[in-house]
Amino acid sequence: MAQAPKNETGGAGGGTENDGFKTFLVGLATDPSQLGRFIKDPDATMADAGISAADQAVLKSGQAAAIYARLAGQTAAAGIAALLVVDVTEGAEAGSQDVSLRAQAAQSLFPQFPHFPQFPQFPQIVPPQIVISHFPQFPQFPQFPQFPQFPQIVPPQIVTSHFPQFPQFPQFPQFPQIVMPQIHPQIVAPQIHPQIHPQVVAPQIHPQPAVVFPQIFPQIFPLVLVASQGFAPGLLHFPQIVPPQIVVSPQIHPQIVAPQIHPQIVAPQIHPQIVAPQIHPQIVAPQIHPQIVAPQIHPQFVVFPQIFPQIFPQVFPQIFPWFTQQG
Amino acid sequence: MSETNGAGNGAKKGSLIVVGTGIRTVGHMTLEAVAWLKQADKVLYVVGDPIAEAMIKDLNPDGAESLTPYYAVGKPRIDTYNEMIERILACVREGMTTCCACYGHPGVFVYPSHESVRRARAEGYSARMLPGISSEDCLFADLGVDPGINGCQSYEATDFLVNGRKIDPSSSVVLWQIGVVGDGTFKTNGYDLSAMPLLIERLLAHYPMNHPIYLYEAAVLPGCEPTIIQATIATLGQVPLSAGFTAYIPPGAATMSDPTLLYRMNALAGAAQAQAQARPQ
């Protein structure tokens, strides 16, 4: 195993651009095979790379301050002291001892490197949010009051008074691609895609329509049938009961609610790519939308208040004609 | 100079790719990030360790340019970030394949990267961001925290304090930049933490005084271990902090499920099953 010569700058290198120590670390960062060898056998890898014993001791010390100082160009003479440790172990023969010598960084000296101006610790690169006057170029700040308006955009669309819009049946084929994400909002792409391609959200959802229909329609039609049996089993003798129930189904249809609720739809409509992700990532959609949208996503939450007010007043008079007759 | 932006859609010449160098450069660099650093006409970087800087200069000696000179002591960081954005976009507008390299994940708590991508796209240039390893990723690994168990709320400390973010004590909470809370400027030697008592006051509204809080700083250099300091909410102000610290607060309350909702879920599941059985064959 070749032992590389020490650097001329005191054994610890001078921290220059051609520094072998730094070059070695850069190689570890960019060459997976070299990193693998280093993980498996660091001593041999460093020795093969020509790293001096002092530098090896610094790297193995686990002392960030020492490594920083070394990378910043400070030499061993300038403060990175390497201790020579003598290891005495029992030899192969009885009574004999094996003596080995190794270098180790003197850890107690490292606190003398409190900070290194050339590599200051940068805070996370997010703008400070305490001084709003520093954000004159961000018009969304005065728009904070808009956030409470988010619920106002969605709920009015599930109010029963809007149901007279149902004659829009022909629009159903346009909706399916939006429905699937409501079923598994946390799994589907909505939180990711808008950040990557906010403007192309819809095309990303298109492959899902084929799955949506079989999921939705079976839920609608049999649901009403089962409900009628449950509510009034004896009334199944009246064949006229069923048609009105089928008429109800469009009111239950999640696709009506879907485009109004879905985060992918809401977010781009409000601030497609101007507000949320780009200006204040920590303030925007990912934090706000899940709280607002989550209860709206689940179709069952939304459907219930829609179904009951609609089903009962409409179905019962038809199911129980004698009630009205008796009444 | 690149002839196209790689999109092949007739967009403007010049493009932007944003990559992350990870927290610990040795081991966190992705192959894709290395490839872009090599191929870019211009590499503008903000990194926090000398290995990353040396690596970028090694990969792209002609195009590497540090953005750290835009930092200045006492200068509002937002001004620095806006100047970085303008520099990045200037390179894109010149028609260069521009690579912006940030430490950690380039899209996590990095305002200039997101804003650069948005503006570049708005101006018709191809712009894309690649993921990296953030300090929160390191935190989850080093502290053994699974954010999926109790949920995890993640806030920037100053944002949490000033903007009235709500805490759910039954979930984990991560407070970023707790070492610079209340200080919107850049400093090389200690930040003004006079707002720390206010943060403690906010936390005490949700947690008992002796509730543990873990102050975490990921290992940046190879061979080093992460810094993990256990304190309590009450003693938070006594811990020496630097800009690299992130606070992790474990759940302080039991998870409470909603029996009504559970009942409704089961009812819906039963209804769906009944629908399937009632469906005509």
The largest sheet of chain B has its strands arranged as 3-2-4-1-5
Largest sheet of chain A: 2 strands, antiparallel
- Cα radius of gyration of chain A in angstroms: 35 Å
> What's the helix-strand series of chain B?
EHHEHEHEHEHHEHEHEEEH
Query: Which residues of chain B form runs of ≥5 with pLDDT under 50?
Result: 1-9
Number of strands of chain A: 2
Helix content estimate of chain B: 25-40%
Structural class of chain B: alpha/beta
Radius of gyration of chain B: 23 Å
Number of helices of chain B: 10
Low-confidence stretches of chain A: 1-18, 76-80, 105-120, 130-230, 241-318, 323-327
Distance between the termini of chain A: 104 Å
Major β-sheet profile of chain B: 5 strands, parallel
Q: Average the pLDDT over all residues of chain A and give the rounded result.
A: 52
Set out the fold topology.
The complex is a heterodimer of chains A (327) and B (281).
Chain A: H1 20-30, H2 32-40, H3 42-48, H4 53-61, H5 64-71, E1 82-90, E2 97-105, H6 150-153, H7 180-183, H8 193-196, H9 201-205, H10 209-231, H11 242-252, H12 254-261, H13 263-270, H14 276-279, H15 285-297, H16 299-319, H17 321-326
Antiparallel strand pairs in A: 1-2
Chain B: E1 15-20, H1 25-28, H2 31-39, E2 42-46, H3 50-59, E3 64-66, H4 77-93, E4 97-102, H5 111-122, E5 126-129, H6 135-143, H7 147-150, E6 152-156, H8 157-162, E7 172-176, H9 196-204, E8 212-217, E9 227-232, E10 246-249, H10 259-278
Helix pairs in contact in B: 4-5
What does this structure look like?
- The complex is a heterodimer of chains A (327) and B (281).
- Chain A has 327 residues and is mainly α.
- Helix content of chain A is 47%, strand content 6%.
- Chain A has a two-stranded antiparallel sheet with strand order 1-2.
- In chain B, the strands form two sheets. A five-stranded parallel β-sheet of chain B has the order 3-2-4-1-5, with helices on both faces. A five-stranded mixed β-sheet of chain B has the order 6-7-10-8-9.
- Chain B is globular and about 65 Å long.
- Chains A and B meet through helix 1, helix 4, helix 5, helix 10 and helix 14 of A and helix 1, helix 3, helix 4, helix 5 and helix 8 of B.
